[in-house]
Design brief:
By secondary structure, the chain is α+β, with helices and mostly antiparallel strands. It has one domain (8-304): Roll (2,3-Dihydroxybiphenyl 1,2-Dioxygenase, domain 1), CATH 3.10.180.10. It is 16% helix and 35% strand. It is built from 5 helices and 16 strands. The protein has helices at 18-28, 91-100, 165-173, 227-239, 298-304; strands spanning 8-15, 32-38, 46-51, 60-65, 78-86, 107-111, 114-120, 126-131, 153-161, 176-182, 185-190, 198-203, 217-224, 248-249, 253-259, 265-273. The strands form 2 sheets. Strands 2-3-4-1-13-16-15-14 form an 8-stranded mixed β-sheet. A hairpin with a 2-residue loop joins strand 6 and strand 7. The protein is globular. It starts with 7 loop residues before the first strand and ends in a 6-residue tail after the last helix.
């Protein structure tokens, strides 16, 4: 069994409009944009990162806004809901704020004994705010969000699968233990990591397959402390029969990827070196940062990228 994984690192999704995406996460949700860079494989597309003050692993939501991308189709084989933690008692404030800003899909409920508020993002993304203990986390209080309501980071993520069996076995191999069930949803939890420590599997045997597009999660990333731990995880996965990519330098972390039995793309990302490797903490996310190989093309790339608010 793998014992190096420390909970979630980040979740990466796709969007249809960079400006709208930026406004929603920095304005409506009050997160900090901690990095403004580009997709390594499509440099004419932004890669935007939102999180707490420093982009702590377990707090970072990232987006590829592909521009006029058709919406994805919800279904099985995807991360269906991304869940953010907020302080206990904060949901009434958030319900009023989100309703006032025209956010759709608002639905209050409880799951695994926790109060939650589900809502939709600009591209039909499925999100939830879940009341949780702070566990040492401090929210970024942007756009008028008070500290006693601010987003603390991720609570976890919920996958929708036709058959949970093989993915549940994989999570067990990755160090997660079955925690509890609530209807068709089973929760898995990892000990000894960060506060973004839960993964839920919703089993929907009769549902159709998801199709990726705007509003879809592209991949979900799990955290390891460093490159040595990452190499140990890679070897363990490959020894078990998974096809894992070589280690890829993503400037702010190193990454490996593999496809799960349920169809979801998993990444294992290092906590090092972090988002302050090329920007002072006070100015994270302000300047356009390019991978080294694209720096000679900065002028052309900047001309292709749409303007987004600071």
């Amino acid at each position: 069994m793998i014992n190096q994984i420390k909970g979630l690192h980040h979740v990466t999704s796709m969007a249809a409009d960079a400006g709208q995406n930026n406004a929603f996460f920095t304005g409506t949700l009050g997160l900090r944009r901690v990095k403004k860079t580009v997709n390594f494989d499509a440099p004419e597309v932004y890669h935007l990162y939102y999180g707490d003050e420093t982009g702590t692993p377990g707090s970072v939501m990232t987006y590829f806004p592909f521009g006029r991308m058709p919406r994805g189709r919800r279904g099985t084989g995807e991360v269906g809901v991304t869940e953010f933690a907020v302080p206990e008692g904060a949901l009434p404030w958030w319900k009023e704020r989100l309703a006032a800003q025209g956010v759709s899909g608002l639905a209050e409920g409880r799951s695994f004994g926790e109060a939650r508020l589900d809502f939709a993002g600009p591209d039909g993304d499925s999100f939830a705010l879940v009341e949780s203990a702070a566990r040492g986390r401090t929210p970024w209080t942007g756009a008028g969000v008070p500290e006693d309501a601010g987003v603390l980071g991720f609570r976890g993520a919920r996958m929708r699968l036709r058959d949970a069996g093989a993915t549940a076995e994989l999570l067990g191999f990755m160090g997660y233990s079955r925690d509890d069930s609530d209807g068709a949803v089973t929760r898995y939890r990892i000990e000894g990591g960060n506060a973004a420590d839960t993964i839920d599997i919703e089993e929907l045997p009769g549902a159709g397959a998801a199709a990726q597009g705007a509003g879809s999660v592209h991949h979900i990333a799990f955290a390891v402390e460093n490159r040595a731990a990452q190499l140990e995880v890679r070897k363990a996965l490959m020894d078990t029969g998974y096809q894992v990519t070589p280690v890829i330098d993503r400037d702010y972390f190193w990454a490996i990827y593999f496809r799960t039995p349920g169809g979801v793309l998993f990444e294992i990302a290092t906590n090092e070196p972090g988002f302050d490797r090329d920007e002072d903490t006070a100015h994270l996310g302000e300047a356009l940062k390019l991978p080294t190989r694209y720096e000679p093309l900065r002028g052309k790339i900047e001309a292709l990228l749409p303007e987004i608010a600071a």
